[in-house]
Amino acid sequence: MNMSENKRPVDYGKEMCNAIMETQRPAQLWPAGAMFYIPGVFLSGMQRMWHLTGETKYFDYIKEYFDCVLPPDGGVYGIHHEIPIPKTDGDHYNYRALTMLDCKQPCVLLHDLYDETGEDKYLKAIKTIGESMYFWPVNEYGGYWHMMTQHHQMWMDGAYMAGPLSVKYAKRFGDPTLRERAIHQVFLMNDYIKDEKTGLYFHGWDPTKEAEWADPETGLSENIWGRAVGWYAVAILDILDDIPEDHPAVERLKQIEVDLLTALVKYQDPVTGKWYQVLDKPGAEGNWVETSCTSLFAYSYAKAIRKGILSTEYAPVLEKAYQGLIDGLYYDENNRLILGGVCTGTCIEAGTYAHYINRRQVQNDLHGAGAFTLMCAEMELYLETKSERK
After folding, report:
1. Which residues are identified as catalytic?
2. What DSSP designation does 70 have?
3. What pTM value is reported for the model?
4. CA gap 345, 318 in Å, rounded
């Protein structure tokens, strides 16, 4: 395995964190003043860097972010669907935190903050966001609506946005209700959103078939978007971290993960080691290799192999993906690490092939920086385990 400049994955992860930290203070992470999954996924990667290195600057950055988005009492409010509006005194309220699954995801980070500091505001936010899931609307199958404004629709992204926070809440407070609901979401997606022909997953499903993008017979969206499938793969593994090993759902969760990672092999680009924006159409006109989904898949291969869920025979797939990501990195004039080829934030909208391939490609977008940093952390652990096996 070619390790560029003899750097380890953790070194690249630190460089990515540092690049963002040097250009954006926590209060500047978009959307300013509100919890949202975009900074949440980046800070999740940064959290892993803190766990691996013990460097307190990472913990401090995460804490500063939450101290910007949470009022002093830890209150989280769900009374509005719009972008948060700053109060005149400079405080910002999380108007969307209880009305979008995407706004709940950062809650997973609050557990470390509370455990390290003992500050009640973090525990209050954990409780408020977790308890909001008891009342989250579901479709006729028990599937979470992705947003309050998207009635009945399930998006693959939702497994990551709501799943890990739910099982962490259940583990902390000893109530299995949200854990079982999180597992149910994974199973629903496998039962109804999976494309049996490819073994991959469409971006969304509307059982009422009323959405603009919904197939009139199946209710499925038309295309298989890389990052949506990546969220699902990561979510399953992270959910498994926080449920009992003897839980009756464990073996099925593991098998779903294995089946997905097995199916993905066929669609890996043999030249770059990456995966495509529209996963199942690697040779189609206009399609392009995308780095955030590749990072999420590499994370998933590394973690699944490390934990004995996936056979080590898939190590070449993982290592090819990792090297492809490393080979695509470069540095700007200030010697900051740059990750390009990241798809900007993407809803389903019309759901057409053109919609996905025409999305903007951006560099050091937090989707990509976060996915890449998560991957680096997991890759570091994978290499340590690999070394121990020799």
Report:
1. 157
2. S
3. 0.94
4. 25
